[in-house]
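To whoever is on call:

I kicked off a structure prediction for a single chain this morning and the downstream step that reads the tokens threw a length-mismatch warning. I double-checked the sequence; it's 112 residues and nothing unusual in it as far as I can see. Pasting both halves so you can look.
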Amino acid sequence: MTTRDEALCYGLAFKDVYRDAPFRDPNWILVRYKKNKKAFLWTYEFQGQMRINIKVDPEWRDFWRNAYEAVIPAYHQNKEHWNTVILDGSVPDEDICRMIAESYDLIVGKKK
């Protein structure tokens, strides 16, 4: 996964979600859960790189950051509960999908 469209396509496949562009800056496109309007996937370009921000269980936060150089503390969000993934091709798609799915579950409130 290296593009915004790929990330958005995956994020929009979850139940009861919608695409949102809430800021005056069109660079930021989010995917939110309809029932509580919480975002679980933020997409944006920063320093010439496409990135996503995803909510993360603090127990897994450091695991992902240590596993991949492209997973870093979240840009413009709480660093304890959010990670940024730089979509440079270095993180396998299945791991990015897992992180997005876990972010969705955290927003929705599903039990693991």
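Update from on-call: the warning came from a stale cache, not from the record. Cleared it. Sanity check on the structure: The two ends are 25 Å apart (CA to CA).
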